[in-house]
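FORM 12-B: Structure-to-Sequence Request
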């Protein structure tokens, strides 16, 4: 009996794209934490009466945000690891079943070529049916696992509730159809003919072809909407940096480099907003690199301004009181870069 292997060429790419999307979604809140620390510290310069308790409170807020973002990144990493492990497990099971079936076919050809009516030939035919059944069941389980994950992605996506409901109805119907096929496969016995096995295999293949088209579209839309949300959040971060740069400029600070970086960031985000998929992901990585440079530049300008102001009052260079915030900022940026390029 010949059972053709179902093609799953696009499944790996689809899940890989989802993984990239998950990483990117966890990226931007870190920029907000860094931006808020810069904004708050700059506001402190506007009020000479700000006391140490106020500064401590601001640092605690920034630290809390950093810890929350760190926890979010860790949860994202755990989820991605779980998805990858599950994909690898199902892929390994299907591969093992496929290899067993291929070996059984070779055995069938060899033994039955000698005497098609021998007991040995009949025995290997029954074993081949068992291997075919196992291969079909593992293929079904892999499809169901993918459908369950896609259903979860849709439920937690940025889609409108109406779009979520429509997609969920479609996915639920696919799940029901595949479950029905699984019941048919489980009912197969050695008494069933080669044609019975082949008919169910063809039915499963046709259903997978139908699912795959919607599957790719759902995956694309889920990731694209997540990335669009990232673009929106990074644009919000750019707005906040623009306000900070404006206040620094009013105080006589040379913000030429900061303005140039902000302009580059805006341009890159415009490109990302017009792109999709992997191209959009690549552009967002570039935008995030610019955002890191912009943040570093603004933080340096702020420290310089504080140092100059303190020098006017005391005539001495004060010891920086921003070590904790700067450390949190640097760690946040490094971790984000690692996540975005994973």
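FORM 12-B RESPONSE
SEQUENCE OUT:
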């Amino acid at each position: 009996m010949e059972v053709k292997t179902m093609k799953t060429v696009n499944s790996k790419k689809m899940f890989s794209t989802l993984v990239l999307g998950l990483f990117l979604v966890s990226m931007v809140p870190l920029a907000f934490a860094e931006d808020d620390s810069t904004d708050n510290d700059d506001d402190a310069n506007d009020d000479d009466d700000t006391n140490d308790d106020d500064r401590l409170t601001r640092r605690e807020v920034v630290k809390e945000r950093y810890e929350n973002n760190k926890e979010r990144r860790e949860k994202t990493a755990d989820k991605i690891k779980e998805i990858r492990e599950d994909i690898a497990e199902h892929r390994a099971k299907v591969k093992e079943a496929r290899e067993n079936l291929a070996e059984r076919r070779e055995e069938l050809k060899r033994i039955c070529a000698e005497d098609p009516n021998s007991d040995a030939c009949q025995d290997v035919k029954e074993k081949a049916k068992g291997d075919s059944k196992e291969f079909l069941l593992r293929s079904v389980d892999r499809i169901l696992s993918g459908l369950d994950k896609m259903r979860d992605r849709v439920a937690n996506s940025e889609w409108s509730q109406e779009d979520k409901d429509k997609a969920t109805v479609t996915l639920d119907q696919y799940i029901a159809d595949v479950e029905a096929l699984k019941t048919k496969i489980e009912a197969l016995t050695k008494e069933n003919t080669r044609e019975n096995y082949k008919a169910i295999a063809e039915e499963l293949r046709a259903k997978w072809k139908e699912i795959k088209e919607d599957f790719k579209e759902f995956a694309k839309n889920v990731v694209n909407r997540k990335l669009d949300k990232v673009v929106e959040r990074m644009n919000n971060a750019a707005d906040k940096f623009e306000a900070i740069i404006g206040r620094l400029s009013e105080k006589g600070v040379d913000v030429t480099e900061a303005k140039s970086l902000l302009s580059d960031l805006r341009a890159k985000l415009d490109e990302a907003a017009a792109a999709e998929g992997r191209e959009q992901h690549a552009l967002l990585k570039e935008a995030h690199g610019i955002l890191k440079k912009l943040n570093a530049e603004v933080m340096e300008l702020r420290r310089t301004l504080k140092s100059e102001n303190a020098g006017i009052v005391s005539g001495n260079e004060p010891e920086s009181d921003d070590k904790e915030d700067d450390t949190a900022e640097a760690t946040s940026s490094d971790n984000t870069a690692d996540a975005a390029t994973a």
